[in-house]
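Hi everyone, sorry if this is the wrong subforum. Our group has a chain we'd like a structural model of before ordering constructs, and none of us has done structure prediction before. Sequence below.
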Amino acid sequence: MGGVALRCGHRSLSAVLLAIFLSGGSAVAEPVDKAVAAARAAVSKLTPKDAGGRHGQALGAVETCVGMTLTERASALSSVYAGADLEAFKTQSAKIYNAWIKVKHCIQQDDPNQCRIIVDESCAAAIAEIGPSGTALPDLLEAPKR
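Answer:
Right subforum, don't worry. Here is the predicted structure as C-alpha cells:
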C-alpha cells in the first residue's frame, strides 16, 4: 500500500480493506499471537473508542501519506475486542478514516496550497502520535525509509 494508492475500480485498496475489516471478513491470515498480545498490551489503558480512533488514523495515514505502512500491531488491534467493544472500535475507526479521506480529497479554490499544508501536518502528526516512537499509541505506522 504505502504511498501508492492501488485502485480497485473506483475504490482504493485501503478502502476495500477497510470495508472487509468493518464487515468482519478477513483479507489476510489472522495476525500472529505475538502481534495480538502486543496490541492488547498497547491499548490496555485506552477505551475501545480511543483505540478505534487511532486505528482509523493509521488507516487514513496509509491512504494519504506517501510511503507509510501499517505495522502488525495496527493490523492486530481489532482482534483485541469483541461484542459491543468491537462495534465501538469499528465505528470510531471508520469515522476517523473517513475524516482522513476528506482531507486527502481537499479542494480549496482560493488557496490550493492550504490543502497540501493540511495533509503534510496531518501526516507529521500521525508519525508523532502513532509512529515507531509515537506519543499516543506507538508502533501502528512505519514511516518511509530516508
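For your construct planning: Residues 15 and 93 are 12 Å apart (CA to CA). Helices lie at 13-23, 33-42, 48-64, 72-76, 83-104, 112-130.
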